[in-house]
Design a protein that fits this description.
With 128 residues, the protein is an alpha/beta fold. 31% of the residues lie in helices and 21% in strands. The chain is globular and about 30 Å long.
Length: 128
C-alpha cells in the first residue's frame, strides 16, 4: 500500500476518520471542476507530498473539515505529480501558486485563497 492508498481509501492514519477526497489528476478534469462550481462551492487543497508543513496543514484540514459533499466538495491536487494543473489553476483563476494552499471556487472563480498555517477548514463555513 502506497501513500495514496493510506490517504484516500479507508482512513488516514493521522486522523481518526475517513476522508473522501476527489483527486484532481488531469487538465480536462479541471474544466469539469470549474463548471461544477456553478452548482456548489469547490475547495481545492494543493499539497506537496515532500513538505512537512504541507502534511501538517493537510492533516489539520482533514480533521477539521466537517461539511457534506452536497454543500462543498473537496478536491486534492498532488503538486509534485500534477504541477501542470496547479499552473493552469494559477493562470485561469488569477491566483498566485503556493504550497500548501486551499482555494474555494464558486461560479468558475476563486473567491478565497490561503496557504500554509492560515489553512483552516472552519473558514469554509462562510461559503456553504
Amino acid at each position: 500500500m502506497g501513500f495514496f492508498n493510506r490517504l484516500f481509501n479507508s482512513t488516514n492514519p493521522s486522523s481518526q476518520k475517513a476522508f473522501d477526497w476527489v483527486l484532481l489528476t488531469d487538465l480536462e478534469q479541471l474544466e469539469d471542476v470549474l463548471l461544477h462550481s456553478y452548482e456548489k462551492p469547490i475547495v481545492i487543497f494543493k499539497h506537496s507530498t515532500r513538505c512537512s508543513i504541507s502534511k501538517l496543514a493537510l492533516n489539520r484540514f482533514e480533521n477539521d473539515f466537517n461539511y457534506p459533499k452536497e454543500k462543498i466538495e473537496p478536491f486534492y491536487l498532488d503538486l509534485l505529480v500534477h504541477r501542470d494543473i496547479s499552473n493552469e489553476i494559477a493562470r485561469r483563476l488569477q491566483v498566485e501558486h503556493q504550497s500548501p494552499q486551499i482555494l474555494v471556487i464558486k461560479n468558475g472563480r476563486a473567491i478565497y485563497s490561503t496557504s500554509h498555517e492560515s489553512i483552516d477548514a472552519g473558514i469554509l463555513e462562510r461559503f456553504v
